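FAQ: What does the model actually see?

It sees only this:
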Amino acid sequence: MGTTEHHGAADAIAEPLLPSSTVEVEPAPPRRNMFAFVCATLASMTTILMGYNLALMSGAELFMRDDLGLTDEQVEVLSGSMNMFMLASILAAGWAADAIGRRGTVVIANAFLMASALAMSLGGSFASLMAARFVTSVGVGFAVVVAPVYAAEIAPASSRGLLSSLVDFFITAGILLSYVSNYALAGLPLRLGWRAMFALGVPPPLLLAAGVLAMPESPRWLAMRGCDDEARAVLERTSDAPAEARDRLEEIRRAVAAQVGGAGVWRELFVRPSPMVRRILANVLVLYSFQQASGIDAIVLYTPLVFKKAGISSTSAVLAATVAVGLVKTLSIFVATFLSDRVGRRPLLLASAAGIAVTLTSLGIALLCAGAGAGETTPTPAVAAACVASVLAFVTAFSIGLGPLAPTYSAEILPLQLRAQGMSLGIAANRVTCSIISMTFISLANSITMAGCFFLYASTAVAAAVFVYVRLPETKGRSLEDIGVLFAK
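And it is asked to produce this:
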């Protein structure tokens, strides 16, 4: 009897409390791939030097004017010329990325950036500084095109938005570092201070080039060269799951099989584009243009002039305020970095464009009160504080959407076989717009007032919001084929 009771108890324990058919175990979501994150980070870090070299002029020009006797017109040209010079390297970057690989192109970019930082620190005339600025533009042009392409090609779909937006994060980090450099070195002797600011840009490219050489080549580029085994190995290391690696390789193979090279790519883009390609290219060009037409480089390059116009007379106080702008801009980029794969690209772009319109209007009104309009008034501390707050709000609005997501969205929607050249064209449009803004701001402010400039930029932000709402569908988590279907309709 005891034996019977023992067996009955064992059977009761062994029997499940619920029928097995009702037990559902949901598979755990795949872990995010950290190797892909490291690779995209190393490639994107090169763009720190773009932000550093671009924004360094905002504070350095205050000292270069006195040391070298530069005029307003020369400062405008020197500040904005890098964007115009960049056109040649931007258009060549797609070819270079396809010819020598994404990784090799980033290494070359770092070599140019190291040489240009040294040349700027040794410059003794307007002509020599312009020559150094041209060398800078070659490195920056290569980096700003190839880094987002590499990030988009190495990233799994689950983190493509985050990894692609790293480019703008590092550009913004470079801007912050340049503002800190301006402030920290402002107390050095006049002839030495601004040169030391540029000399600090010499060592980082060497270190970054060494790091880039340690990361794998883009699986897309390897497949283009017929190295399918190597491409598969890279995809297995950079995908969230083995099945995803297989799917990505098949997608790349189909794109490579349909690819046309050299002149054929440009022919597909311009001479005989399909309706889908025409829509995608138009959206890339317009989105990239709106990013700069918002006036971001007027703020990045001329923040000290804006703050002086607002009534902040002390140079150290002006440079300290620019550090605050750089810090807020850098922190704000995290919003886009971590929300683009959760909320989506489209909501962030819409919120960003609307925020830019509101904050630039606020800045224009504050500058009118400070006497930067047609009338003459005396700036007050409250007005100066309102100007600083408006600038901080503007860079926040820009950095949560339009700044980081323009390259992310563009790289996502371009077909694989057209991506390098298509990104080159988009960034070329971006740099042309940036050149117009940066090389005309002082002259335009003298003509229509500084407040009028920001009212003009606010109107373009309204147009950008309308464009995003009407023309840009959501791409979050979609495959390249799904994105192609969206633009084929």
